[in-house]
Design brief:
Chain lengths: 155, 267
């Protein structure tokens, strides 16, 4: 049974500004921010379960203001051998723009928005209501690398 | 999978009309020597490692030519590994893919390959031998379809292990993948999140407020710990299983102290 959970897209444009930033600096630095994105499914979340077989899938892609295309970044939780307990597979994706600050010299700062997309998957054992697996990936407008992949786990 | 079916169908039709039909040859894996004399790499074949065969039954079928088995001949567990593949296509173009893992990602943390144990390694795929022989269910992240398609188009595949970390903390290999930093920064980020959680609870504050502040605060460039902490905070906000997620974070132990035998720099 495929259950779509509540809309969970998180397009956060952070509006925290440190004092002293000029408009021109912000305008130049916005090129590292996310320009547009799309998700499958539209909610950027998929939820499969409870089940001992099956998989859950969420994918996201985005374009940065600098023209870099991120993704598609995909997270698929895959049960290779049927689980002994019913589990709930939860996958999600999000796009973010976050404010990053560089200290140029004493008292002078440059700020810019850095966009990233991330996907994550967790598995919940429905009998014990505990998380038994957690993994995901990240990609940003500066070409950030993906984090490690957890080893295949028991379920 | 679709391509494989088309090739198989073409072979059947070709055989039926008496023409010769050569199956697409799997590229040979060129595997670089291990950076540790105590750990041996063997290209994967199903005949040699039948227990791992089922891993390639579905989404990972195209990754089989890129797979190898890490045989830990030491008396210490292998707790982290990073590998790099270079895929050469028919037109001569090259692409690189990194995959790494470590024991602190597992719940509960467990060695990848105990002393004398083995670990299957392929792009986006790490499978401890203990898991496949346990008879239990198996779950994991499926490899990225984009990466799978690149390996399907490979004419040559090269693989090398960039870093191995043993259970006593010894780091072997160049660690261009910055696996040591990854493990340390991830744990530091977990601690940042948990500190916020504990402080909010102690002060009777709203946890959502505390973590949303963490998720959206300005961070200095190259603040690896801060970015990871923000991502954990967003994951907490996004999941329907927030308590289970916090328990998962609470269960991540401090990593061992890393070292190199020659005293070289770690990061």
């Amino acid at each position: 049974m495929m259950l779509k959970v509540a809309v969970r897209f998180c397009g956060v444009l952070v509006l925290l500004l440190l004092p002293g930033f000029s408009t021109s600096v912000r305008a130049q630095s916005d090129e590292d921010a996310i320009y547009e994105f799309s998700c499958v499914p539209d909610s950027c979340a998929d939820n499969y379960g409870p089940s001992t077989t099956g998989d859950a899938f969420t994918s996201i892609k985005a374009t940065c203001n600098n023209g870099t295309v991120l993704g598609p970044k995909t997270v698929t939780l895959d049960i290779t051998v049927p689980c002994t307990h019913p589990v709930l597979l939860e996958t999600s994706a999000e796009a973010n723009d976050e404010l990053v600050v560089i200290e140029l010299d004493c008292g002078h700062y440059l700020s810019y928005y850095l966009g990233d997309i991330s996907v994550s998957g967790i598995v919940i054992d429905t009998v014990t209501n505990t998380e038994i697996y957690n993994g995901g990936a990240l990609s940003d407008c500066l070409g950030g690398v993906s984090p490690p992949v957890p080893v295949m786990g028991p379920c | 999978m679709k391509n494989a079916l088309i090739v198989a169908l073409a072979c059947i039709i070709g055989a039926a009309i008496g023409s010769t039909c050569k199956a697409q040859e799997m590229p040979k894996l060129n595997l670089k020597e291990s950076p540790s004399p105590e750990v041996v790499f063997v290209p994967f074949t199903e005949s040699q490692f039948p227990d791992f065969g089922r891993i390639f039954a579905r989404t990972r079928a195209a990754l089989q030519p890129a797979a190898f088995v890490v045989v830990n001949q030491s008396d210490r567990a292998v707790i982290a590994i990073a590998a790099r593949w270079t895929v050469v296509t028919q037109d001569g173009s090259r692409a690189h893919y990194w995959s790494s893992t470590h024991m602190y990602l597992s719940i509960p943390p467990a060695p990848l390959a105990p002393a004398g144990g083995r670990l299957l390694v392929a792009p986006d795929t790490f499978v401890p031998e203990s898991l496949v022989v346990s008879g239990r269910g198996m779950i994991g992240l499926a490899p990225d379809p984009e990466i799978v398609s690149k390996f399907m188009a490979a004419s040559q595949i090269y693989a090398e292990v960039d870093c191995i970390i043993f259970g006593d903390g010894e780091v072997v290999g160049l660690d261009q993948s910055q696996l040591v930093a990854e493990i340390q920064d991830r744990k530091a980020a977990v601690d940042v999140v948990l500190k916020q959680v504990h402080a909010a609870r102690a002060n009777g504050e709203n946890l959502s407020d505390a973590l949303s502040q963490l998720a959206t605060s300005a961070r200095p460039a190259n603040d690896s710990v801060g970015r990871r902490a923000a991502q954990f905070a967003r994951q907490w906000a996004g999941t329907q299983h927030r308590e289970a997620f916090l328990s998962y974070l609470e269960g991540i132990p401090a990593p061992v102290s890393f070292y190199r035998k020659d005293g070289g720099a770690l990061r």
